[in-house]
């Protein structure tokens, strides 16, 4: 596409309000090639030339082949569409040619990625020289029962996901003994996605796999691929428990990319008045800005993808764009855009992916479900509605446009929240080296207990298993034995329960159950159209909630907590709904404490209780609140960890002496801390929560907690980098042009934003005193200078 002309046309439009605040043109780059020290087999070289027109390997591909040939475990960190898959496909297939008995497991974070890569390998398997040794097969929850035995016995490469490895392969390792004995390689793709609770569980799954391979006499090499993050070696070494070699000399070419930062205009501006109205500090809807840009691109026959931060936003933008195109007598174009998000059935998602790849669709409005490397073809433009939460995800999404040597357009449309507005004012932060650290904690006792239970089911636990799972093996096993799940005999722990532990241990959510979402409008039958995890259900399908699916509105008639099902039916309404949450926290004796800037920092176990107490009705398009309804749903409690900051009596007194309410300053800093931590700990804003609390110490303190049982290290990372954390918070609030405080700085719409919420509702909560917040941060800086 002609990105420069598109930007010029937008700026000439009479509706343009100076939304473009920065354009960074990332120049095209020539390819860099290298020869591996050990030449590839001629059969592979011939295939690359014939099928892919590849005559030379990029530098990172050659480096990976060299390291793997030396027996090293590697992690490849290069840009999107840089040919990372060849870094593992080539050594694996070369090993099969050298030893037809060799085997490999490819692990992808999603079923869709496994299916996508299986297509590539199946095309290779049609080559005359490879057909006898290359036998790839997808093995996941959708694999028919009658095909599983054949795959175990015949496939040379298994493509699967952590969930299937956890629940469908490792517990049945006896049937896989020959495969595991000959397992040469374990490929872990998109390793940057394995962080937080999911990554911590996957670390346990990989250790169980290594343990069983050793039992059968194997020690496979590990090949990981990752997007760019600050700590790829640290993350992969904690994930695998092995020493890794970093491959990051990216030699792939790229086309020129025009990266636009787009800040929606304020709703209104007045002059000659010292007070600020709500319209002066609130910006136009990012969703509506995205609709305008998407419809313009589609009318220009420019293929585009829109990434949103929530399911609701994806459905709203699709709905608005389709209606807008229909109003402009472009109904045929309205048929060529679709929403795409988690919760859709697999057949629906595959249909959308295929239509996007073929060019049948001109636009897709997606959540991050399409962020990863599913091949949907070379797109012209990517619209990012709101900062995705990490710089890593930002570049993954931006990489979906211009996946070949062509010009492309990326537009990051800011929401009215602190980090988005910070990036609008500090673009270099986005384009500089990554500050983000992926965090996993395989030693989390809640996660470890589940993984050790699964390991014990697979093979009795002994003290030797500390080499895989750490020093808590015996302690956790004794607790399980006390509960009757394990039995100790001659120093070994055997699984003695009738329960199947893998089924009870969910890798991706806090809960182990999901709710079905069923349409009851049909004649005498319920049609399941989606699902949601049990923790999120009270935030998405509470009674009388409006549930959006493919641009259509449904109302929740009944939520059956016992049967785990939400009953819905279609409805014509002019509003959608937003949950209202309440929470409180109690923390215990701290495990770590240190003085900090005249006050004290604590790291402690904490109990957090939250509840969906009401919902609001929000008008489509205008986002006007038209009512709030109370709810009586059960509360949920988790035991986690928290970082606690007690600012000290001197700072509280100074705020009071200067005429400020100390609580207002603490609330503002709390909001800024919640906004800034995801950029440092590489977590999602939904992974953390925070309150200002006086009940624990008898004086107000800030509590920032992890939203997972036992904690996952996000608060711990904040405790370790508090200086950087507070410096970023200070830059956010001081850089905001508002006078009295707004959702872009000290305001925060939801203390625990739900994935099912609309991020546009950023101004719906009271905004703390900006001056009190700035004074509090200034006093902290003074205290630092005196230390």
Automatic annotation (TrEMBL):
Keywords: ATP-binding, Nucleotide-binding. The keyword Nucleotide-binding applies. The keyword Translocase does not apply. SUPFAM superfamilies: P-loop containing nucleoside triphosphate hydrolases (SSF52540). CDD domains: DEXHc_Hrq1-like, SF2_C_Hrq. This is ATP-dependent helicase. It comes from marine sediment metagenome. One of its GO terms (cellular component) is nucleus. Gene3D superfamilies: P-loop containing nucleotide triphosphate hydrolases. Signal peptide: none annotated. SMART domains: DEXDc (SM00487), HELICc (SM00490). GO terms for molecular function: 3'-5' DNA helicase activity; ATP binding; nucleic acid binding. InterPro entries: DEAD/DEAH_box_helicase_dom (IPR011545), Helicase_ATP-bd (IPR014001), Helicase_C-like (IPR001650), HRQ1_WHD (IPR055227), MZB (IPR018973), P-loop_NTPase (IPR027417). Residues 290-447 form the Helicase C-terminal domain. Residues 65-247 form the Helicase ATP-binding domain. GO terms for biological process: interstrand cross-link repair; nucleotide-excision repair.
């Amino acid at each position: 596409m002609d990105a420069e002309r598109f930007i010029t046309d937008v700026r000439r439009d009479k509706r343009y309000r100076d939304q473009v605040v920065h354009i960074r043109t990332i120049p095209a780059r020539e390819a860099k090639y290298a020869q591996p020290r050990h030449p590839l087999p001629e059969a592979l070289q011939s295939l690359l030339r014939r099928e892919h027109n590849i005559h030379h390997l990029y530098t990172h591909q050659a480096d990976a082949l060299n390291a793997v040939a030396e027996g090293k475990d590697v992690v490849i960190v290069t840009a999107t569409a840089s040919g990372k898959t060849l870094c593992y496909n080539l050594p694996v297939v070369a090993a099969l040619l050298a030893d037809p008995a060799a085997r490999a497991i490819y692990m992808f974070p999603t079923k869709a990625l496994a299916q996508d890569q299986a297509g590539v390998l199946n095309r290779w398997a049609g080559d005359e020289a490879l057909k006898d040794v290359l036998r790839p097969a997808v093995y996941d929850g959708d694999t028919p029962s009658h095909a599983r035995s054949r795959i175990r016995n015949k496939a040379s490469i298994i493509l699967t996901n952590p969930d299937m490895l956890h629940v469908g392969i490792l517990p049945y390792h006896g049937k896989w003994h020959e495969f595991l004995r000959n397992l040469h390689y374990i490929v872990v793709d998109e390793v940057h996605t394995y962080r937080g609770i999911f990554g911590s569980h996957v670390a346990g799954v990989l250790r169980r796999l290594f343990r069983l391979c050793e039992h059968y006499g194997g020690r496979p090499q590990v090949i990981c691929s990752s997007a760019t993050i600050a700590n790829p070696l640290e993350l992969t070494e904690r994930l695998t428990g092995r020493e890794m070699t970093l491959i990051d000399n990216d030699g792939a070419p790229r086309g020129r990319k025009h990266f636009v930062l787009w800040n929606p205009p304020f709703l209104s501006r007045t002059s000659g008045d010292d007070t600020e109205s709500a319209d002066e500090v609130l910006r136009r809807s990012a969703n509506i800005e995205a609709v305008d840009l998407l419809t313009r691109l589609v009318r220009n026959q420019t293929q585009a993808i829109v990434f949103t931060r929530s399911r609701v936003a994806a459905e709203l933008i699709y709905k608005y764009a389709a209606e807008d195109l229909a109003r402009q007598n472009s109904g045929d174009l309205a048929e060529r855009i679709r929403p795409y998000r988690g919760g859709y059935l697999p057949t629906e998602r595959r249909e959308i992916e295929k239509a996007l790849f073929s060019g049948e669709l001109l636009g897709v409005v997606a959540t991050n479900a399409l962020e990863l490397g599913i091949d949907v073809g070379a797109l012209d433009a990517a619209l990012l509605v709101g900062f995705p939460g990490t710089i890593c995800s930002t570049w993954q999404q931006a990489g979906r446009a211009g996946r070949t040597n062509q010009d492309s357009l990326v537009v990051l449309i800011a929401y009215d929240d602190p980090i988005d507005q910070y990036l609008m004012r500090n673009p270099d932060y986005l384009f500089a080296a990554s500050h983000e650290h992926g965090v996993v904690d395989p030693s989390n006792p809640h996660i470890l207990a589940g993984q050790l239970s699964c390991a014990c089911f697979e093979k009795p636990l002994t003290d030797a298993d500390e080499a895989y799972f750490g020093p808590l093996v015996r302690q956790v096993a004794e607790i399980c034995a006390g509960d009757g799940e394990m039995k100790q005999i001659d120093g070994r722990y055997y699984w003695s329960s009738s329960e199947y532990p893998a089924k009870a241990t969910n890798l991706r959510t806090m809960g182990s159950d999901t709710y079905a979402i069923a349409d009851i409008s049909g004649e005498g039958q319920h049609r399941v159209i989606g699902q949601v995890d049990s923790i999120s259900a009270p935030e998405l399908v509470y009674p009388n909630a409006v549930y959006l699916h493919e641009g259509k509105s449904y109302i929740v008639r009944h939520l059956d907590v016992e049967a785990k099902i939400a009953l819905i039916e279609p409805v014509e309404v002019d509003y959608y709904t937003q949950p209202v949450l309440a929470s409180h926290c109690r923390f215990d004796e701290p495990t770590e404490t240190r003085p900090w800037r005249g006050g004290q920092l604590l790291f402690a176990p904490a109990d957090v209780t939250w509840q969906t107490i009401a919902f609001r009705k929000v008008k489509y398009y205008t986002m006007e609140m038209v009512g709030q309804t109370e709810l009586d749903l059960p509360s949920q409690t988790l035991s986690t960890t928290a970082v606690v900051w007690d600012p000290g009596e001197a700072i509280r007194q100074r705020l009071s002496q200067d005429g400020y309410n100390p609580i207002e300053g603490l609330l503002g800093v709390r909001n800024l801390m919640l906004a800034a931590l995801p950029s440092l700990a590489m977590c999602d804003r939904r992974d953390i929560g925070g309150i200002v609390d006086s009940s624990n110490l008898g004086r107000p303190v800030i509590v920032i907690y992890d939203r997972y049982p036992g904690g996952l290290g996000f608060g711990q990372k904040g405790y370790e980098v508090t200086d950087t954390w507070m410096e970023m918070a200070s830059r956010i609030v001081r850089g905001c042009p508002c006078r009295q405080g707004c959702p872009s700085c000290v305001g925060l719409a939801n203390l625990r934003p739900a994935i099912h919420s609309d991020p546009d509702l950023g101004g719906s909560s009271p905004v703390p005193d900006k001056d009190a917040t700035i004074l509090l941060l200034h006093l902290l800086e003074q205290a630092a200078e005196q230390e």
